[in-house]
Amino acid sequence: MFKKEHLEAMRRILESVCRDFDAELVEFNGEHDHVHLLVSYPPKVALSTLVASLKGVSSRLLRQEFGDFHPWLKRRGVLWSPSYFAASCGGAPLDILRQYIEQQQAPH
């Protein structure tokens, strides 16, 4: 179950991974069991490679950072499911996309 501190660390980690791919994490929001990302990435980058890196690096670094304090992170066999949903939004106004992602957070 992701808490506020996990999501804050995750944002930092995902921004770093995006920079490594010459991509930009435009918007991020998360809930207790999943996250929503708006990423702008260059056409030379394979989406599957970017997603695999985002998942792999975030899983490893979150476990390192929080595993001692939140044992459920270490106990889980995998942090992320192998699936993901991606949609192209070329031409859509970024403000509308940001608003959509911001509204995905469930009230706690």
TrEMBL record:
Please give the biological process terms from Gene Ontology that the record holds: DNA transposition
Q: Which residues form the Transposase IS200-like domain?
A: 1-104
InterPro entries the record matches: Transposase_17, Transposase_17_sf
This protein's superkingdom?
Bacteria
Molecular functions per Gene Ontology: DNA binding; transposase activity
The molecule here is called Mobile element protein
